[in-house]
Amino acid sequence: MASPADTGKRRITVLGTGYLGTAHAACLASLGFEVLGVDVSAARIAALSRGELPFHEPGLGSLLRTGLASGRLSFSTSYPYAAAFGDVHFVCVGTPQRAGCYAADLSQLTGCIDALGPLLNRPCLVAGKSTVPVGTAADLAARLARLSPAGPACELAWNPEFLREGHAVADTLRPDRIVAGVPSARAEAILRGVYADPIRAGAPFLATDLATAELVKVAANAFLATKISFINAMAEVCEAAHADVMMLSEALGHDPRIGRAALRPGLGFGGGCLPKDIRAFMARAGELGVEPAVSFLREVDDINLRRRARMVDLARELAGGSFAGRNIGVLGVAFKPGSDDIRDSPALDVAATIHGLGASVRLFDPVAMSQARRAHPELSFADSAIEAVTGADVTLLLTEWQEFREADPEKLGAAVARRNIVDGRNALDAGRWRAAGWHYRALGRPLGHAGK
Ligand SMILES: NC(=O)c1ccc[n+]([C@@H]2O[C@H](COP(=O)([O-])OP(=O)(O)OC[C@H]3O[C@@H](n4cnc5c(N)ncnc54)[C@H](O)[C@@H]3O)[C@@H](O)[C@H]2O)c1
Q1: Per-residue pLDDT tens digits for 38-64
Q2: In this structure, which residue's CA is closest to atom 5 in ligand 1?
Q3: Is residue 239 scored above 90 in pLDDT?
Q4: Pairing mode, if any, of strands 380-381 and 35-38?
Q5: For domain 12-208, which CATH number applies: 3.40.50.300, 3.10.20.880, 3.40.50.720, 3.40.710.10?
Q6: Ligand 1: which residues within 6 Å by Cβ?
Q7: Could you confirm whether domain 223-442 is CATH 3.40.50.720?
């Protein structure tokens, strides 16, 4: 078999094997690269080496196992091994919100560069993929230059990632664009080589400076969050004006300048990216002296959080004005369908708040149960949607999994104590649920609307 050098394929390491890193590693192995995934978590590396995906991501488990079986994909906790292995090192570690403030916690990134840098004694490219505040890449490049024995032969690029959880495999193999912040023509050529297949398939490759590449990702997330909060702000107005935000959204979406994507009103955004990324953007803009440029993101964040409060209020209204002694059945825990990610999940936030207000809350999610159990041992969990709503005074749809969208209102109705439902995602056919005798409420819609 030809070696990677013979085929012109460089050997790749992926540092940090979370949602992003595991998808990146398995997809590059499927494209024919030899890939080593590295993580500081020995348990995670052991699971991945056994072909066990530590989280839910459609299609990724089989890609992982195919990669392992082909011998092109392997995992390790060893940085010396990684440094010796890789020609290109993709950095995919986490950049969570720092405790007590809006700024990003960059300690995983600096930890990674500090561990890798001193071991780099031959030419290579370090390519950051994590989402970072603008300016981080330049700081890390200087840090790497200080640490690396290979000196200028070891360069740092920034190649932000746009994959969506739930679609990680398709988004990685067929990205809608590839953005590369590159310090040199050599670095650009290396990244063009890594992404040769998607580029050949038509993905635009945009080479930029480091700062622009970092900002593209943050700006994209800020725009998405703003669009979601815009329609949710309209939902607030619709609630006050007895108008229907679903019709409003549909009518807006027909305007090609606006578009339908990210315009579905509901419980708002959560997860491990949008909330912390817009907050880190505000913090960084403050440091750069341009705080007013993104101060609207504070409102975007506030609108988003107000939807959760509104959901709790609607549930309480249907519970008869108080949660004390009430049973609440919750459908959905993950921050969105297609994922088991519960980081900053609006669903879990609402469920925990209602529990704190005295209700007995029972939850079900098709894939996120074990994560939720670990994070919220005080809540009670069911093995099915029917079990979650059995005896419920109010049912809440908080994550719009297909199985909940298709749920039979008669079947669920036979299990509940009272046919009260709040559709937190505007995902159900209101007419069908009302026809089955349910008192149906949804965010941003008038009491007696008839439509879908
Ligand atoms: N999850 C997504 O959909 C997504 C999409 C685009 C961008 N991003 C960005 O990608 C980054 C990673 O996100 P994620 O969701 O995969 O995070 P994650 O928390 O799931 O994974 C991070 C991994 O890095 C490991 N790690 C920490 N320090 C390390 C070190 N020094 N060396 C090696 N491994 C280390 C952790 O153990 C963990 O497994 C973040 O910046 C995020 O904003 C994520």
Answers
A1: 999 999 999 999 999 999 999 999 999
A2: 163
A3: yes
A4: unpaired
A5: 3.40.50.720
A6: 15-21, 38-41, 44, 92-95, 108, 111-112, 115, 130-131, 161, 163, 165, 272-273
A7: yes
